[in-house]
Amino acid sequence: MLTYKAVYKYLDDGVHGEVIDFPGVLTCGKNLDEARSLLAEALVDMAETNLLLGESLPVPNGVLSDHESDIDEPIHLILNASSRVKVVPKLVYEAA
Q1: How much is the pLDDT for 74?
Q2: How many CB atoms lie within 10 A of CB 7?
Q3: Chain centroid to CA 57: how far?
Q4: pLDDT tens for the 96 residues of the chain, in order
Q5: pLDDT at 88
Q6: What is the pTM of this model?
Q7: Three-state SS for 26?
Q8: Residue 56 host element (H or E)
Q9: Strand, coil or helix: what is 77?
Q10: Residue 85 placed within a domain
Q11: Does the residue 89 lie in any domain?
């Protein structure tokens, strides 16, 4: 698990959210709950894209802050390992 820093700013038409220590991860929602949800999805999408392109993930920096934000809080990225190997059962033929 990697823990980045999410910041949120209330705007006239919604809430802007950004992960300040993972460049490019940002979104806007109608309210804080929607912005949080969308930001979590954006973080996963950006992390997957970096990895598919063979790029490393940014190192979280817990000391970063945005003095213009209204809320800052941790956001957690949990990566799951998987394999694309498919196990196909062997066919057993009986003599006729």
Answers
A1: 96
A2: 23
A3: 11
A4: 999 999 999 999 999 999 999 999 999 999 999 999 999 999 999 999 999 999 999 999 989 999 999 999 999 999 877 666 666 666 666 666
A5: 66
A6: 0.81
A7: strand
A8: none
A9: strand
A10: no
A11: no
The residue range of the domain holding 57 is 2-77
User: Which tokens sit at 33?
Assistant: 């709950």
Q: Other C-beta atoms within 10 Å of 64: how many?
A: 13
Number of domains in the chain: 1
Describe the chain by its helix, strand, coil percentages, rounded to 5: 20, 30, 50
DSSP letter, residue 62: T
26 phi/psi in degrees, rounded to 5: -155, 160
CA atoms within 13 Å, Cβ hemisphere of 37: 6
- Does residue 57 fall inside a structural domain? yes
Token pair 């969308």 in the structure block, residue: 38
Whole-number Å distance between alpha carbons of 13 and 21:
25
Answer yes or no: is 92 within a domain.
no
The domain that holds 37 is classified in CATH as: 3.30.160.250
Compute the distance between CA of residue 3 and CA of residue 43 in angstroms, rounded to an integer.
11
